[in-house]
Task: structure prediction
Amino acid sequence: MMMKNNTFEEIAEVLASAGKVLIFPHINADGDAIGSSAALCRALRSLGKECYILIEDEIAGNLKFLDDGLTTSDTGVMKADVSVCVDCGETGRFPLRAEKFAEAPVTVCIDHHETSKGFCTYNHIDPDAAATAQLVFRLIKAMGVEIDKAMGEAVFAGILTDTGSFRYSNTQKETHLIAAELYDSGIDAAGVAQEIFETVRIERLLVENRAVETMVTLHGGKAVLAYVTQEMLRETGATMDETEGVVGQLRSIAGVELAVFLKEYAPEEIKVSLRSKKYVDVAKFSSDFNGGGHERAAGFTLRCPIAEAFDRVKEYVSAMPEMK
Result:
């Protein structure tokens, strides 16, 4: 059962007493993870704290504009007084940094995934929040920090990506109110959107086309599955982060309720992304494979070859009673 949430004021007090803070987004960090981390890091630095975002993999090219000396992959950068995990609720989401996270005497979790259980000293997990960036916005307010342009754009990036540009069903009244308030900090909303959605290498288009060509439909077109392999990446010159938009493309097809996209990171490391439109609970789907996420967006990892993973997932989707 999830632990009772700490208030933002309680967490702000913990951060105020810290001199050194490390922030831990999840692996393959998306716009919400990087945006939330960047906003919080900037806020803490504005208070005179020594703070870094500790990462273990490359930031996606379209999100690098959010990083201006905020990130490091050096686990020896410092010994933190407080470790903060952002947009994730377990150390399995940042495996190569788990030991470093636990090194701090105090840990904090800020997340909005319904499968997160609250494993830290202090936790604020709100599955009703459209994005973790919304929670970080409220935390920064509780810290007494005035949100400037850079912080505002980081929060806006997190909200923009996790709501699908305010299109997804997780978008709330509060989402729009926060976005409206961010304009007061001087954000360039159009510029942020351009960086995220309109700074695309041709290699991305090539690999997206290859992935879509693998598409298989089930249940009369209500479910679609596709995949990308390391060979496809080599042939097109693309990187794995450039395939992040494929699952959304699959879901956007008329008549599709469930989209499943498998990504071959290694010969026996397959990450599966799930998206649904109206009624399929992909968090439940994901939990059946020891994964996690939201009702409409979730994922998990399979440790087997891509062909076997595809067959296993296809068999599961074929048997789903809600799709029949």
